[in-house]
Amino acid sequence: MIPRLALRAPRAFDGERALPGGAWLLVDDGRIVGVEPAAAPVPDGWPVVDFPDATMLPGLIDTHVHLCGDSGPGALERLPDFDDDHLARLIVDGLRRHLASGVTTVRDLGDRRWAVLERRDAGTPGLPTILASGPPITSVRGHCWHMGGEAAGPEQLRAAVRERAERGVDVVKVMGAGGGTTPGTDILRCQFDLDELRVVVQEAHAAGLPVTVHTHALVAVEQAVAAGADGIEHGGCLTESGFGATDDVIEALARREIAVCPTLGALPGLPPPPPLVALLARAGMTPEEGRQGRIRLMAQLYRGGVTLISGTDAGIGPPKPHGVLPRAVADLMASDVPAADALASATAVAARCCGIAARTGRLRVGLDADLLVVHGDPLTDLSALQRVAAVLVRGSRTHQDGLTST
Questions:
Q1: d(CA 183, CA 203)
Q2: Domains plus CATH for the chain?
Q3: Stretch 234-256: mean pLDDT
Q4: Are 141 and 184 within 8 A, CB to CB?
Q5: Which residues contact residue 288 at a Cβ distance below 8 angstroms, ignoring those fewer than 6 apart?
Q6: For the chain, does the N or the C end have fewer beta carbons within 10 angstroms?
Q7: Residues 9-39: pLDDT tens digits?
């Protein structure tokens, strides 16, 4: 049994808003059992851990990762070269890197041979909780075909969804268009027709599963909306002339509450995959201009009332190592998203959109004690989210730095 503990900090963000005067949390057997102002007395008999000049918030949720990816060049294309033992080691290593950055839940949106799903089912004590899609559904030799999710025609698509439902996935991921990490695919072209994509959505919804769609192109976003998808990954609304969503798309995304994960966040100074660089060049943009275009697009979506959640595409290449989520939140802030809403995109809003709000994402009594403590105040200092003081997973302290116990 995890020992009970009282945690106290002069600042706290509860997943939606700042708590005036900070907070202390009572944690017992892995759950939050009390949330009170920091100045309130702690009940007798509770060991207290103080975090001076720190901020306490829910553990972060990275809503788009690839745990089988080793973050090296061509990471996803090399997956067929890895045996099961190597994949298992990569998954655990990726989870540890996420944990060190303050992430306590990851949503994996594409593995190889169901390796991540098997790791989820085996349990992850002391590591982030896994939500998993298994291999993404894609067209024959379509984007990420090497993960094993190829399907053609309505019957194969129905069978693919049913297999995922039988295996117990948390979400169905479908590649709506080509991608920058799979040579020979077209980022600007849909991989399925509208009726085929509707088959995927209808079959998944019948099984009680949400569907999220990989899209970079505006035409693919429009198709995913028309098909009734629940989520959009990347969502760049890209055309040959650059980034930009139409008013109709923004209105539909907002009205239907379709969550968009822009997969921002990357190490600086490293270029995106060559196919994406080439596409940006066709639009007259450098990679940095492309990045700024995406940030302006996210500002446009936010102003239009679209739900934004934070995820990174971690593991796909050198710019996207596991554990880069704080940079994605910072990029949203750079998109003129208010700091509290940017933090919520990786906590309370992410939990709601991933279907786990009853378990995590907020500082609330009854939820799991998935917690992050950072030095400084991330609501006023973008870099504070990268200065991790402590991480707790279901009440177990897995990382700590500079704590004072009383």
A1: 30
A2: 5-59+362-405 (2.30.40.10), 60-353 (3.20.20.140)
A3: 94
A4: yes
A5: none
A6: N
A7: 999 999 999 999 999 999 999 999 999 999 9
How many residues does this entry show for the chain? 406
pTM exceeds cut of 0.90: yes
The distance between the two most distant Cα atoms of the chain, rounded to a whole number of Å, is 66
Looking at residue 189, its amino acid is R
CA–CA separation, 136 vs 149, rounded Å? 5
Tokens describing residue 240? 């040959």
Tens digit of pLDDT for each residue in 218-232? 999 999 999 999 999
The secondary structure of the chain, three-state, reads CCCCEEEEECEEECCCCECCCCEEEEEECCEEEEEECCCCCCCCCCCEEECCCEEEEECEEEEEECCCCCCCCCCCCCHHHCCHHHHHHHHHHHHHHHHHCCEEEEEECCCCCCHHHHHHHHCCCCCCEEEECCCCEECCCCCCHHHCCECCHHHHHHHHHHHHHHHCCCCEEEECECCCCCCCCCCCCECCCHHHHHHHHHHHHHCCCCEEEEEEEHHHHHHHHHHCCCEEEEEEEEECCEECCCHHHHHHHHHCCCEEECCCCCCCCCCCCHHHHHHHHHCCCCHHHHHHHHHHHHHHHHHCCCCECCCCCECCCCCCCCCCHHHHHHHHHHCCCCHHHHHHCCCHHHHHHCCCCCCCCCCCCCCECCEEEEECCCCCCHHHHHCEEEEEECCEEEEECCCEEC
Average pLDDT of every residue of the chain: 94
How far is it, in rounded angstroms, from Cα 342 to Cα 349? 10
> Which pLDDT band, with edges at 50, 70 and 90, does 291 fall under?
confident
For residue 20, give every residue at least 6 positions away whose Cβ sits within 8 Å of its Cβ, in sequence order, or none: 37
Tell me which long-range contacts 152-161 makes (C-beta under 8 A, separation of at least 24): 153/196, 154/195, 154/196, 154/199, 157/192, 157/196, 157/199, 157/200, 157/203, 158/199, 158/203, 160/200, 161/137, 161/200, 161/203, 161/204, 161/207, 161/209
